[in-house]
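Changelog-adjacent note: as of this version, every example in the card shows the full chain rather than a window. The one below runs 99 residues end to end.
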Amino acid sequence: MSNIVVPVVLGSTVVWLAIKTMAIGKRELYLPPGPPTAPLLGNLHEFPKTEAHLKLTEWARIYGGIYSLKMGPGTAIVITDVSAVKELMDKRSQSTLVE
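Full-length structure tokens:
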């Protein structure tokens, strides 16, 4: 009996770790759309080291004024639409007013 328990537990642990590792870099369903991601890297492999503004502008044309990027395990929400920025700032400023 114990001869089979150790391999099963070890195998289950390896499978669980593999699934968790592959989930790093994936976009959560509640996030705005964005470019396709790669496991572990997210969008890091597509993000340029120079002239990043050109790539961000290209993605804004494709995905709209609000989109998300996965940077490894982290997430960046990019807002390029002026009206969306204004609306967000107005909402945030209203929540900080003290009466």
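Structural remarks: The chain has one domain: 2-96.
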